[in-house]
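Predict both folds.
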Amino acid sequence: MSDIFPKWTNQLPLKIAVGLALTGTLAVGGVWYYFTPKYTRVGYQPIQPVPFSHAAHAEQMGIDCRYCHSAVDRAWYSNVPSSSTCMNCHSQVLATDPRLELVRQSAKTGQPIPWVQIHKVPDFVYFNHAVHVNRGVSCFSCHGRIDQAVEVRHEKPLSMTFCLDCHRNPAPNLRPPEQVFNLGWTNDAALQNAAGQKFVHDWKILSLQSCSTCHR
């Protein structure tokens, strides 16, 4: 009596299982690679309620980062300036510009401007701005040349890999404390690294990679 099904069908379950396994592996690999902050966060640039140009304020007029982000070297967070800080200048400069109407109303009523948050780490991650900037890590390392940005965008992934790369080899991201807020300090990688190596030695900076460093 002849077989009902061709002989090649005997291997069909195995082939289906192998096909499903390969498909699943490719799917997981694709998600693992492309669903990372490098692809899901970098480039995020939402429309803000008030247009603000770092290029005009920081680069052209030379306003120090700490004038607006006054807590960045003293607290775990980099604060967004209050509207009253903006009005220190804009009560005289562009005092009637319609683009700043929301700022004027905020300063008058005390209602905060609803800025859209761009940079954010998960709640289970501990990050302290003051610790980093007071040990020579510039705004540039995490935010790029934000002083040249007309609109703020998510410049670096700020992922665990991103942080660990720096923690394993901090020297390339360290600079003299007086140059931390000078984002265009040098384009010489060798000079940057040499300065960083000195500070790693002088400040006894450790290559902290244990989980409890960031997950507390």
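Second protein follows, with its predicted structure tokens after the sequence.
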Amino acid sequence: MREAMHYQVFPEKLDVQCMLCPHRCVILSGKAGKCSVRKNEKGSLISINYGQLTAINLDPVEKKPLFHFMPGTTTLSIGSFGCNLRCPYCQNYHISMGNPGTRNVTPEILINRAIEMGIPSISYTYNEPTVYYEYVYETAKLAKQKGLSNIMVTNGYIEEAPLKELLPFIDAMNVDLKAFSEKTYQSFCGGDLDTVLRSISSAHSQCHIEITTLLVTDMHKLNELERMFQWISGLSPQIPLHLSRYFPSHQYHASMTPKSWMEQVKKTALKYLDNVYLGNI
């Protein structure tokens, strides 16, 4: 456990308010926020998943997916548990919303392992890195000092101040832009679109960025997606976009995304963007 960053205390009640993501949970003593991993311990907000890793793997960087950042290299991918969104179709629900087994790995041990194996980057992925923010921040800062690159695979649902504090140590991001409708974000994911767009804009100004959209069956309309592609193009038509195939998972059981629909969406995206890829097909 580690005391969390970005929170405030209400001393008269021992309540705390987490300021890490837009939920801004007010958490009673002994309780946890919506992410389930930031807990109020007698007036101190604690990150209960600090250093608790559910996975440590070697992956091609293209698997993140990042196609235009350090191509052909291997990255040391890590994940913890917890998430600040609640997508019913989550492909990693067993770690984002479950109670998986973990092992404790300090930032120093992780970075030394990467250096010993000659791995040039660390990827914070699998579950949402925002909810193990303190570990990501401390590891990324130390990794940068040791000459390693840092990659964050994220839903982008983070407040502006903590993102600004973290970005100097992040070299590349893949942001999951789930939809281009406020209603869809709220009803399907429990978040908001504006925050994610702000995160993408901030990251684009400071590091390499690629975007992934999971084409969930019955969740998107083509005109909405076209507005998304126009918005991304407004930042830069060079931003790579990954259109990923959905498979039934967790609480959402619609059939897998038809390939014909994916091809139609890609054709539309290419009207605005230069680098569009289909994934999971």
